[in-house]
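Annex B. Sample input.
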Amino acid sequence: MGKVADHVKKYRSRGYTCAESTIMAANEAWELGLSEESTRLFGGFGGGMHSGNICGAVSAGVAALSARYNKGSGHTSPMLAVKCNLFLQAVQEGTGCLRCDELKPVYATKEEGCDPTVVLIARILDDVEAVPLDIPENAGYDLRNPPEGKPGFKEFNAAAKAQYDAYIRSKKA
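Annex B, continued. Sample output.
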Protein backbone atom coordinates (compact mmCIF):
# COMPACT_ATOMS: atom_id res chain seq x y z
CA MET A 1 0.00 0.00 0.00
CA GLY A 2 1.37 3.39 -0.98
CA LYS A 3 1.17 6.81 0.55
CA VAL A 4 -1.35 9.46 -0.41
CA ALA A 5 1.36 12.15 -0.23
CA ASP A 6 3.33 10.31 -2.93
CA HIS A 7 0.49 10.81 -5.43
CA VAL A 8 -1.32 14.02 -4.52
CA LYS A 9 0.94 16.51 -6.34
CA LYS A 10 0.50 14.55 -9.57
CA TYR A 11 -3.23 15.26 -9.48
CA ARG A 12 -2.72 18.86 -8.41
CA SER A 13 -0.42 19.37 -11.41
CA ARG A 14 -3.25 18.16 -13.66
CA GLY A 15 -5.52 20.96 -12.42
CA TYR A 16 -7.63 19.04 -9.93
CA THR A 17 -8.88 20.73 -6.76
CA CYS A 18 -7.46 19.95 -3.32
CA ALA A 19 -10.38 17.61 -2.65
CA GLU A 20 -10.27 15.86 -6.03
CA SER A 21 -6.50 15.43 -5.78
CA THR A 22 -6.71 14.00 -2.27
CA ILE A 23 -9.44 11.46 -3.03
CA MET A 24 -7.74 10.42 -6.30
CA ALA A 25 -4.37 10.06 -4.55
CA ALA A 26 -5.95 8.00 -1.75
CA ASN A 27 -7.79 5.89 -4.30
CA GLU A 28 -4.50 5.14 -6.05
CA ALA A 29 -2.36 4.71 -2.92
CA TRP A 30 -4.83 2.58 -0.97
CA GLU A 31 -6.35 0.81 -3.99
CA LEU A 32 -9.86 1.80 -2.93
CA GLY A 33 -11.42 0.94 -6.29
CA LEU A 34 -13.34 4.20 -6.60
CA SER A 35 -14.54 5.00 -10.09
CA GLU A 36 -13.54 8.16 -11.91
CA GLU A 37 -17.19 9.14 -11.80
CA SER A 38 -17.29 8.91 -8.01
CA THR A 39 -14.14 11.01 -7.60
CA ARG A 40 -15.84 13.80 -9.58
CA LEU A 41 -18.21 14.15 -6.63
CA PHE A 42 -15.40 15.95 -4.84
CA GLY A 43 -15.22 18.89 -7.26
CA GLY A 44 -17.53 20.95 -5.07
CA PHE A 45 -15.40 20.50 -1.96
CA GLY A 46 -12.36 22.40 -3.28
CA GLY A 47 -11.64 25.77 -1.71
CA GLY A 48 -13.55 24.83 1.40
CA MET A 49 -16.69 24.06 -0.62
CA HIS A 50 -15.93 27.19 -2.63
CA SER A 51 -16.62 29.26 0.48
CA GLY A 52 -13.44 29.05 2.56
CA ASN A 53 -15.02 26.54 4.92
CA ILE A 54 -13.51 23.13 5.79
CA CYS A 55 -10.52 22.50 3.50
CA GLY A 56 -11.36 20.22 0.59
CA ALA A 57 -8.29 18.07 1.28
CA VAL A 58 -9.62 17.48 4.81
CA SER A 59 -13.10 16.63 3.53
CA ALA A 60 -11.67 14.24 0.94
CA GLY A 61 -9.42 12.68 3.60
CA VAL A 62 -12.50 11.82 5.66
CA ALA A 63 -14.15 10.42 2.52
CA ALA A 64 -11.09 8.28 1.77
CA LEU A 65 -11.14 6.91 5.32
CA SER A 66 -14.85 6.18 4.87
CA ALA A 67 -14.20 4.29 1.64
CA ARG A 68 -11.51 2.28 3.40
CA TYR A 69 -13.15 1.57 6.78
CA ASN A 70 -16.93 1.85 6.57
CA LYS A 71 -18.16 -1.67 7.22
CA GLY A 72 -21.86 -1.17 6.65
CA SER A 73 -22.65 1.96 8.63
CA GLY A 74 -20.52 4.70 10.11
CA HIS A 75 -22.47 4.23 13.34
CA THR A 76 -21.24 0.64 13.73
CA SER A 77 -17.66 1.02 12.40
CA PRO A 78 -15.30 1.86 15.28
CA MET A 79 -12.17 1.91 13.08
CA LEU A 80 -13.79 4.43 10.74
CA ALA A 81 -14.91 6.59 13.65
CA VAL A 82 -11.52 6.70 15.35
CA LYS A 83 -9.52 7.18 12.13
CA CYS A 84 -11.74 10.15 11.17
CA ASN A 85 -11.52 11.59 14.66
CA LEU A 86 -7.73 11.16 14.75
CA PHE A 87 -7.36 12.70 11.30
CA LEU A 88 -9.34 15.81 12.22
CA GLN A 89 -7.50 16.18 15.54
CA ALA A 90 -4.12 15.72 13.85
CA VAL A 91 -4.90 18.30 11.15
CA GLN A 92 -6.10 20.73 13.82
CA GLU A 93 -3.01 20.13 15.97
CA GLY A 94 -0.61 20.13 13.02
CA THR A 95 -1.91 23.22 11.24
CA GLY A 96 -3.93 25.10 13.84
CA CYS A 97 -7.16 24.96 11.85
CA LEU A 98 -9.39 23.02 9.46
CA ARG A 99 -10.75 25.88 7.37
CA CYS A 100 -9.47 26.72 3.90
CA ASP A 101 -9.61 30.46 4.54
CA GLU A 102 -7.39 30.02 7.61
CA LEU A 103 -4.97 27.50 6.07
CA LYS A 104 -4.42 29.38 2.82
CA PRO A 105 -2.73 32.49 4.27
CA VAL A 106 -0.33 30.31 6.28
CA TYR A 107 0.55 27.48 3.86
CA ALA A 108 -0.28 28.54 0.30
CA THR A 109 2.38 30.26 -1.77
CA LYS A 110 2.22 32.40 -4.88
CA GLU A 111 4.37 29.87 -6.78
CA GLU A 112 2.70 26.65 -5.62
CA GLY A 113 -0.78 27.79 -4.63
CA CYS A 114 -2.35 25.35 -2.15
CA ASP A 115 0.01 22.47 -3.02
CA PRO A 116 1.96 22.76 0.28
CA THR A 117 -1.31 22.61 2.22
CA VAL A 118 -2.60 19.60 0.30
CA VAL A 119 0.69 17.73 0.69
CA LEU A 120 0.80 18.47 4.44
CA ILE A 121 -2.76 17.21 4.90
CA ALA A 122 -1.98 14.12 2.79
CA ARG A 123 1.01 13.39 5.05
CA ILE A 124 -1.20 13.66 8.11
CA LEU A 125 -3.69 11.31 6.43
CA ASP A 126 -0.84 8.87 5.75
CA ASP A 127 0.19 8.99 9.42
CA VAL A 128 -3.36 8.31 10.58
CA GLU A 129 -3.63 5.42 8.13
CA ALA A 130 -0.27 3.95 9.20
CA VAL A 131 -0.87 3.90 12.95
CA PRO A 132 -1.62 0.38 14.19
CA LEU A 133 -4.82 0.48 16.22
CA ASP A 134 -6.27 -2.25 18.39
CA ILE A 135 -9.83 -1.34 17.39
CA PRO A 136 -12.42 -3.61 15.73
CA GLU A 137 -13.64 -2.68 12.27
CA ASN A 138 -17.26 -3.51 13.13
CA ALA A 139 -18.81 -3.37 16.59
CA GLY A 140 -22.12 -4.97 15.66
CA TYR A 141 -23.99 -2.24 17.56
CA ASP A 142 -24.61 1.50 17.30
CA LEU A 143 -21.62 3.26 18.83
CA ARG A 144 -23.75 6.28 19.72
CA ASN A 145 -25.77 4.14 22.14
CA PRO A 146 -23.63 1.14 23.08
CA PRO A 147 -25.09 -1.73 25.08
CA GLU A 148 -24.21 -1.69 28.75
CA GLY A 149 -20.60 -2.72 29.29
CA LYS A 150 -19.64 -2.12 25.65
CA PRO A 151 -17.45 0.78 24.45
CA GLY A 152 -18.92 3.61 22.41
CA PHE A 153 -17.38 6.39 20.32
CA LYS A 154 -15.89 8.14 23.34
CA GLU A 155 -14.07 5.07 24.66
CA PHE A 156 -12.80 3.98 21.24
CA ASN A 157 -11.57 7.51 20.47
CA ALA A 158 -9.69 7.77 23.78
CA ALA A 159 -7.94 4.44 23.21
CA ALA A 160 -7.07 5.33 19.61
CA LYS A 161 -5.71 8.77 20.55
CA ALA A 162 -3.30 7.19 23.03
CA GLN A 163 -2.15 4.66 20.40
CA TYR A 164 -1.76 7.40 17.78
CA ASP A 165 0.24 9.65 20.09
CA ALA A 166 2.58 6.75 20.93
CA TYR A 167 3.00 6.02 17.21
CA ILE A 168 3.87 9.65 16.40
CA ARG A 169 6.35 9.79 19.32
CA SER A 170 8.06 6.60 18.10
CA LYS A 171 8.20 7.98 14.55
CA LYS A 172 9.97 11.13 15.77
CA ALA A 173 12.47 9.19 17.90
